[in-house]
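Support reply, case 0932

Customer input (verbatim):
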Amino acid sequence: MSIRFTAQSRQGLVALTVAAGLAFGAVGCGGGNDDKKPNSSAAASHGSESKPSAQEGQSEAPMAELRGTDGLLIQIVSAQRDSGGFVTVSGNLKNEGAKSVPIPAQVSGDETEIIKHGISLGGATLVDSKGKKRYYVLRDTEGRPLTTTGLGTVDSGQAIPVFMQFPSPPAGTTDVTIQLPTFSSGNIKISG
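Our regenerated output:
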């Protein structure tokens, strides 16, 4: 009887973990309650209207700029701690160069589990220098990184909204460094 109870408890715990992961993924992907802001999936499309609107990504001054190769730039606009123990870092990936640029594969990192899900920002880390800890991008139960995925080529002048979710450093830690392979690092402040 105790074996059956333990098995049922484990199934319930797995289901709860999967549901929580999906809920946090949806929160990280969602656009919030701002109905005037365009859908991020529409902004990331490569159709004839792939240029971002004038207001997209312009509402907040970036707290850090990570410069990459061939004119790529990531502007970090927020790093928000939530009550679930996560930090969501949001920003815009821009191509300031004169020609289309493919996203370097190195930004996905070198973990096999993340790489098999395509080009993403899965190689990003938050570094807490005072606490001497490094925080890696979270993954769901199937190994997919909780970050923007499906990145390909960024056209000249195009901006794509991006996000990355990390485990939350201790509540007293607000100043961290964000690092991403092939990009410069930047100092950001966690709020919330």
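We compared this against your earlier run and they match. Two observations from our side: Helices lie at 2-29, 40-43, 112-115. The two ends are 45 Å apart (CA to CA). Please reopen the case if you see a mismatch on your end.
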